[in-house]
Specification:
- The protein has 2 helices and 13 strands.
- The chain is α+β, with helices and mostly antiparallel strands.
- The chain folds into 2 domains: 78 residues, no CATH class; 83 residues.
- The strands form 3 sheets. A 5-stranded antiparallel beta sheet has the order 1-13-12-11-9, covered by helices on one side. It has a 5-stranded antiparallel beta sheet with strand order 3-7-6-5-4, covered by helices on one side.
- The longest helix has 16 residues.
- 29% of the residues are buried.
């Protein structure tokens, strides 16, 4: 039995195309500081502890590079595009998923689709940073105690996932 659903189970997203300007000085440290500050502002309730960018980070127009933001001890990738001078923009490349929300959402959806009560559980039900294309496996259990794997595949950084029951 294969059932596929597309649902959003994101917990938080940094604003798309976030535009920032830094003061003079070292571009790398300015970019890291600005991204950390914006992420902390927008990811309320999360522990944003810093950003790490490559040594050759530049805000020169057209330059692109990836930085890693520490969110709840996990690495969240952002893509940075230099816009010239001290300006740059960045976009979140990974999804921040709330697996407790996924359990609740998929329990309801699969129960409706299958016409009988099932329970979806993700162990542990926590917030996870998952790259686009990455998967998370949870367990679906029916009223008889029969279990199967639910595979969720992240479709985009907004937290849209495809979920299917395997087996």
């Amino acid at each position: 039995m294969h059932r596929i659903l597309l649902l959003t189970v994101a917990l938080a997203v940094i604003a798309t195309g976030c535009k920032v300007s830094i003061g003079g000085g070292d571009a790398k440290s300015g970019v890291e500081e600005a991204i950390t500050e914006k992420a902390a502002e927008q990811l309320v309730g999360f522990d944003v502890t810093g950003t790490n960018c490559p040594e050759d980070a530049s805000t020169d127009e057209g330059s692109t590079f990836e930085c890693t933001v520490k969110v709840n001890g996990q690495d969240l990738t952002v893509e940075v595009v230099g816009e010239g001078g001290t300006r740059f923009s960045f976009d979140q490349k990974d999804a921040i998923l709330d697996l407790a929300k996924a359990e609740e959402t998929f329990t309801k959806q699969f129960s409706e689709q299958l016409g009988s009560a099932v329970t979806v559980s993700c162990d542990p039900p926590q917030v996870r940073v998952i790259p686009v294309g990455g998967t998370v496996n949870c367990t679906v259990t029916d009223g008889n105690g029969t279990t199967a794997v639910v595979e969720m595949t992240v479709q985009d950084a907004d937290g849209n996932v495809d979920a299917q029951i395997l087996g």
